[in-house]
Design a protein that fits this description.
It is a single chain. This protein has 73 residues and is mainly alpha-helical. The protein has a single domain, classed as Arc Repressor Mutant, subunit A (Orthogonal Bundle), CATH 1.10.10.10. It has three helices and two strands; from the N terminus they run αααββ. It has a two-stranded antiparallel sheet. The longest helix has 17 residues.
């Protein structure tokens, strides 16, 4: 895991602990100081592909660390 991936993973993890849902791309950008939405999105997608995070398809703010389970609604 690269330093940038680790930073974004920690932002996602802290966001889940604090709010109970995933951060938006803009939230991650604001917290990491990144300026490009595409770069943040690409890194978040890589975390999902690596298995460090999970995401529901076609759902905003659904990214979460792998250890957090989705609730059935």
């Amino acid at each position: 895991m690269t330093e940038k991936q680790r930073t974004i993973y920690l932002v996602i993890d802290e966001w889940w602990k604090r709010f109970g849902y995933g951060p938006s791309i803009d939230d991650v950008m604001r917290m990491t100081g990144d300026r490009g939405r595409g770069n943040v999105h690409r890194t978040m997608k890589k975390l999902v592909d690596m298995g460090a995070c999970k995401k529901l398809a076609k759902s905003a703010r659904s990214i979460r660390p792998s250890y957090v389970s989705f609730r059935k609604i």
